[in-house]
């Protein structure tokens, strides 16, 4: 996967950090649906200097989870980041919490996007007082999600494939998990995937820029994090997600949060 992510990192630093993948075309949760108030109570808008850059998920009263590439280079500057919780509106409603600490997974590799996850810590018990917010369950280590399983991905990504305009309202769509060997074959020319990743896809719908770091869930379990892809809703390439049940990932989350 070397060379694969030079385009990601260029876009990441030139824009806002919400890049979903290599050669990503601007796009929202492509052909998704608008969420209703109270849906996705674990969904977070991660903001840098008050601007939405990525999604994130509520894990516990003082912890959230996002993609490592969303905070890369800013680990020592957590005060630049805030979280909007408890609202489906990107720029209003809910509550704003400050990020106190940023912890990237120690094995994160920006060259191939392996171990693309980071934990965000807020003030103790800060999430507990926010209405319409609740944590999402994490999978156990090695917990399997069979191929062709329906999964929900959500975010405030770009509004169209031609304009870099973020969606004002949270959107979501349904994708299907993809056989690991098939995904490896489909993405082999772009470096392939690792055991810390899995793929999901659906015809004409996908996550994209601005959705990075956000949740993909099955039956109210957070199985992954939006990480990277080739384009958006490209019929030939599935989207790639960080696999949260991968033992080195799940053990690290538990070590850091005791969850």
UniProtKB/TrEMBL annotation:
User: What GO CC terms are in its UniProt record?
Assistant: extracellular region
Q: Where is the major localization of this protein?
A: secreted
What EC number(s) has UniProt assigned to this enzyme? 3.4.21.4
Q: Which domain of life is it from?
A: Eukaryota
- The residue stretches assigned to a coiled coil in this entry are none
InterPro entries cross-referenced by the UniProt entry = Peptidase_S1, Peptidase_S1_PA, Peptidase_S1_PA_chymotrypsin, Peptidase_S1A, Trypsin_dom, TRYPSIN_HIS, TRYPSIN_SER
Compartments reported by the entry: Secreted, Extracellular space
Q: Which GO terms describe its biological process?
A: proteolysis
For this chain, the family text in UniProt reads:
Belongs to the peptidase S1 family.
What is the protein name given in its UniProt record? trypsin
